[in-house]
Structures are given as structure tokens and as C-alpha cells.
Amino acid sequence: MKNICKLILFSILLSWTPFYSQTGSDIIFCLDNSGSISDVAFNQMTVSTRKLMEQILKCNRDNRVSVVHYGTDFPGMSPSVPRIYIESNFTNDLATAQTFSRRLGNGDHFHDAVSLIGAALDHYPHPDIVSQQKSLDRHRERPLVIILFSDAERANGSFSNGSYLVNFNPPNGLHEDNAFSAFTKFKMDRSAKFIVVHVSDYAPYIEAAANIASRGGSYTGNIEQYNDDPDHNLLPRFYLNKTNFTLTNTEISSLSNDICKMNTAYVDFTYQARSCKIPVSFPLHINGNYAIPQGANIVNFQLSLLDIATSAVYPTSATVNFPNPNEFEFTVNQADLTNPPSGQYKFIIELVYSLGGNNDGIHAENSITSPYDFMYCENLRTNTTISNPAAKFARPKDKDYRIDLNADPNHTKAKQKENSRPKNIQVSPNPNNGIFIVSLDKVRSGALEINDINGKIVFEKSFTNEKEIAVDIHSLPSNTYIVKVNSGNEVFTQKIIKR
């Protein structure tokens, strides 16, 4: 009997695999220790951090936190260079997490501090990590959140005692990609979210800090724009501009709720772009990582092509496979493509899941920066005779033309009609954060409505003599929605993706 119990226990242990991305987030509190931070200001920072930390650990017992100080000076070490001090490894023990004090001083280089945090996450013992704790044990599948408390300027002073939010090394002028390179890398390579609590009243400093912050939250002011921004220079941002470091109860509640929602779902994939100059060899393999909340069930896992020129979405019929926990793979054959027009496309993955009787969803794009993922060329089109053309050509629902497939089996007229007919509505930007403009062509009066994937109306508005209609659905879940414009006897639709 004892041996049977051991065998059962051994089998359970073999079959158990942790689902890190379903169990919590890793959160770093990065505290400014520079010379401009008074003892009073650091005490405000400390109290706010401890209160926010308490709420974050309360909302999800599997969240983990760590406190990292940044500055340039550390007792017994010279010269003054950007340094960080890690209080402890990621922990969900509140007493351990809340035990910290000021460690550094003098200069203020957050851009360099982020790079040093990257070294700690990669277990590289950088000499400018001056604490006994040299590394941070993070599981890549878990969401990573960095909360910055700082009064830093955009870029001012010297390497030893200057105040630099952005890259010290030239070129670091306004709007230059190099100025934000560390944050771009973290957002792209580590799927990190930045939340910035910033004490400043000077516009250039505010705008730089606001673009370091990730999309989300409630800030809708100006940001310093740059080409490589992974958040596409879009609003709102997780940025709080304040006169001191004391977070109000409302701010703490809002931030903790936002952070605790960040671990509800996750999709990430990489794909090397193909062009018409390089022969495409089918099948194509697209794989990545995903997570859904604990207790949720997958309703749909869809791979689609997004036309960069028109924003039209063409679903593929490729089936998803799950080779390992938290991993997925699409194997795409030519027959899985729904014969979109020739052009440049982005791969879009939509994951819809059900939890507590409600559907929710997220979408992901290729994490490799590229103008396009896939170039659909005329030479890819099949010349095979099709007995039932309608089964081979899937017309996207967001087009306003009609096709007689039996009368035009090669779709020549349909393609010409699609290319020549003007669009009656245009959505920009798309994808978007829920705030976008619907431009009307020849349609001046009627009604606009937004439907979710289940057909439920989530937004509606009547209009008269309008050329553009502003829409704000940023509070709705990330998902695919349908924009529908009714004008007389005509109905025009466009599919959008809300991130």
C-alpha cells in the first residue's frame, strides 16, 4: 500500500508543470536616490511604495515584488557612475518586501538603471550592481512591471551628477530613437510595462517621462514622440505627474487594479518577415507563448492577416497546436490562406477565453520589429481549378462590395472592383487603444454603432452632416470589434482591433 501511494505521488509530480503566467506578475519598484531627493521626498516615496505593494500582494498572492534603488554614488566606491542597489530578490512576503531604506545618492540616470536591471534579470553580475543581491529571478512567461518614482529631468548635467531620464550617450536629442533605446528594448524583448510617478513641472521632462510610461492608465497629455516607440506614440499612458510622491488612496487603488489585471492574459510570438524576393516555402511556422487566467477556457485561438494598406483582416484556417504548457504553434499551409489581395500584411493572433460566463480576449502582433510580416504575391496564388470557388475564397465581412463567384471564378472583376471602388468609411488608427476616428466618404448622415465579437452593441451614436466621428471605447476589453455605419438603405462595416 505504501509503495502504491509513493507511485501515485511520483506520477503527480511528473505530470505537474507550473503555469507561471497564470499565477502572477513580477513587479519592480525603482526608487530615485539622487541628490535632488530630500529625506522628506524619499519618505513620501517609501510610504507610497509600501501601500501600493500591500495592495498588489493582496489582490493576487502570487504577485512578486522587488525594490531597486538607483543613483550614482555608493559609500566606499568611486567614481560617480550610474548604479543600482537591489534590496531583495522577487518575493511575495510583505515583511521582506517592505524592509528597505535609501542606499545611493548624487546623480540620476534612469536609462542606465534600466540597463542594469536588465543585467540582473539576465543573471549578469555587473560591477555597478552594488548590492549583495546581484540578480532577479524572473520567469519570462510572467508579466514584468516596472514602477518608477522619480523627479528626473530629461537630460541635464554631467555623467557623474546629472539628471537623465533618457540615454546620456549621444545622440540623445529630442525625438531620437537612441534616447529611449533601453525602454524600447525592455518593452519589445521583455514585454515590460512601465508605470511612471513623476514630480516635475517642466513640459520637456514631462513629455519624455510620459513616453517612457507604457500605454494604459489615464494620462492623455503630450508625449515626446520617437519612431521606434513600441507603443506607437499612442495614448493614454501609465503616467502620473505630481507635486510630491504621496499617492492618494484613489491613485493606489487604480494602479493596483491596473497591475493586477496585467496578469490575466498574455500572448507573444515571433516571426521572421518574408518578401516576394525570397521564395515562400510552405508550411509557415508561427509559435510563441500564451497564458489565460486560472480557471478560464479557450474559446478561440485565431491567426489572421492584417492588410497594412487597408486595415482589412483576413482570417486563416490554420489550426493551433499546443506542444508544451503555455506554448502554441500555428502551421500555415497555402490552402489556409483566404486569398487576400497582393500586398503587405501583419500576422495578428486573437485569443478569446471564457471566465465566469463572460468572454474576454487579447491580440498580439509579431514581437520582431518589421514593416510587415508577410508579403502576399501574385505568384503565390494557386492555378488549380476549384470546383466550388466560394469555398476557396473567403470574402472579409468588412468590405462593401458584392462578388458573383460563379460568374467570375478567377475573381478578376472582383479584384478590380475592390481596388477601384472608394472606401465609404475609414478607421484610424487601426489597431488602436479604443480611441479612434471614423472618417466618412460620401456618407454624411446616419447612425454609427460598435459591436463586439458576439454582436452586442457596445457603442452607438447618430450623426448629421459629419465628415469624422470620434469614438472612445478605451474602457472595453482588448478584442476585435466591428464598426458599422447605417446610412439610408446602405450599411458599411470595418473590423478593428483594440489592444
TrEMBL record:
Domain VWFA: 26-259
The keyword Plastid is annotated on this UniProt entry: no
Keywords associated with the record: Signal
Taxonomic superkingdom: Bacteria
Pfam families reported for this sequence: Por_Secre_tail, VWA
SUPFAM superfamilies: vWA-like
N-terminal signal peptide: 1-21
Alphabetized SMART domains for the sequence: VWA
NCBIfam families according to UniProt: Por_Secre_tail
Protein known as: VWFA domain-containing protein
Organism: Chryseobacterium pennae
